[in-house]
Amino acid sequence: MERKGPAAWVRDADGRRQTADEAMMASEVALASLSSAPEIVTVRQTFAAWRFFHGFRTDPDSPLRRPCRAVTSPLLASDGGNLAAVFATLRHIREESPDIDSAIDAAFPGAELVVPMPEDFASFGMIFPETPKRVFEAHELSDGTLHFLALMGALLSYRLPPFIALNEPETSLHPDLLPALAKVIGKAAERTQVWVVTHSRTLADSLAEETGVLPRTVVRKDGATWLEGLTRFVGFEDD
Question: Which domains, and CATH codes, for the chain?
């Protein structure tokens, strides 16, 4: 496939050249405009199924803090806006929430995730051991607690995407929560491929202990980005 300005073309399996029907605007992508080529469609569908989580909004207007429509949600949206529906799907439709309950207990000992049976809207809250008769709704939770719950929705949903990328998932989390997060990431990695970029040595070490996968350090080499220990033949010196 090749793109030059507003034009794009692709060669099919027989070497024939197929051109996009219309001139593309700068904001349009060639993968969408060349949808008639089956190989391009496959690549596009593969990329579309991936999930990139670059952090979640936890401000007062964050979609995480609001109820969402009660529709079956097998995986988390990129902005986390269907988190309550993801929890409700696990708790009330699939009746498969032991992994979430274990993660909650590891991160917040004695706490409980409360997911009411949804009607028009789904919601969730937390009960903490200090106040066992009080449910803290999503809009009342701390930024760190809400962020951790969103990561659980991303990593423990009923159906995981074929690839999950987490960029600095430790953001706004208390360091004490990082070993519990590593366990959740390790659990998800049994079902899909997870790529984690982190500045936290604690999280990197916890992931190594949990999964047995060595973290790789990004360095600057000859003015370019490189992985420490990577050889010219795309292997690692310690492999």
Answer: 1-49 (no CATH), 52-227 (3.40.50)
